[in-house]
Amino acid sequence: MQEVEAVRDENILKSIPVLLSKHSTQQMADVWEFGINMALRISDLLGIRYSDIKDGRLTMVESKTGKVADIPLNAKALAITKSIMKEYPEGEFLFQSRNSRNISTRIKPLSRQSVAKAFKDVGEIIGVKLGTHSMRKTRGRFLYAKTNDIARVSKMLRHSSTGVTLKYIGITKSDIDADFNEMVL
């Protein structure tokens, strides 16, 4: 699997949903924006059911860890949720596949592969290696830039160690070297 990156530039971050809606679909733009705001693994993000959302919170069991994630929906995530549920009141999944050619087929969420392709295509336009993990990595990186609290980022991402989190959000040796050079006491 190809290594994907966190988005580091806020202007690029803001351009991604615009490019996704232009070069793919509004649904892919919604996946990106919701994913950036919720920092979920892609399997959990695509598996969100309407029934997982109640009173402005998302409560679900994470597929990888088996842990319960109980996360408040911020204003952006709540707006996306309300918009989708209003447009598709009979939906089951928040990001439900709408390309079913056969009405009798089972209702299912978007596929990880279709999301990965849309993100990769936009990543090629902007020069960033985007993938399904980029949303989660980006959320962690921006929180770290804001707080400089790796333990907090690790807790938000529900990682077991801060070392994993540092690698995950793309803090490299050159970033640490720059910290030594920039901070002179």
From TrEMBL:
Organism: Thalassotalea profundi
Name of the protein in its database record: Site-specific integrase
PANTHER family registered for this protein in UniProt: INTEGRASE_RECOMBINASE YOEC-RELATED, PHAGE INTEGRASE-RELATED
Stretches assigned to coiled coil: none
Xref: InterPro entries: DNA_brk_join_enz, Integrase-like_cat_sf, Integrase_catalytic, Tyrosine_recombinase_XerCD
Record-annotated Tyr recombinase domain positions: 1-181
SUPFAM superfamilies: DNA breaking-rejoining enzymes (SSF56349)
Gene3D superfamilies: Intergrase catalytic core (1.10.443.10)
Pfam families cross-referenced by the UniProt entry: Phage_integrase
Keyword Cell inner membrane attached: no
Keywords on record: DNA integration, DNA recombination
